[in-house]
Sequence to fold (199 residues):
Amino acid sequence: MLVTVKNLVRSSRQAVGLSQAELGIALGVSRQTINAIETGRYLPSLPLALSLAQYFDTTVEALFDLTDDD
Amino acid sequence: MPTAQRRRVAVPIRVMLLGTGLAAAAFAGGVPGAAMGILLTTILGAAAIWIVGGTSSDLAAILRSDPDERQAQITMRAGVITAIVLFMACAAMAARMFVQGERPQPYLDLCIIAAIIYGASILWLKHRH
Fold:
């Protein structure tokens, strides 16, 4: 059972009209890291995941979701 | 000097110090041609690192000693890959010299040192985490 993590970071960011670079600056990470999170190439650390959730005024569970790749 | 500027010059300065030290060693060893080559390469390399450090790429952030968590992970993994490849190269060279009936130094010594450092690192990191 292979588990992956899907996230709503891109849709959340677009909903508030931010660019990847602007979101990166707000959270203290690079634009490339935001892009890597949105495309699923990078899983953020717990502090960064919590910062993302806090920024979008939501919870980590709402922003990130475990899925089974069967 | 502002922090951002200090970060940008930190790696080029380290490269200059290392390269100058190597060049001085080559010069002291009576190989002035190699010393000049090392010095020139060092200066060009440090300049290139300083220039790249002014951009906004992942590589620039790593070279500026200013990585975010993902860039720091990339740097660490690159270090692991480098260590594994170097260890395998030394092991291969030691094996080759054994086969040729020669003493496997310094390659075997390097393999032993690497194994000791790896074991010590595991113990230290295990204790910390």
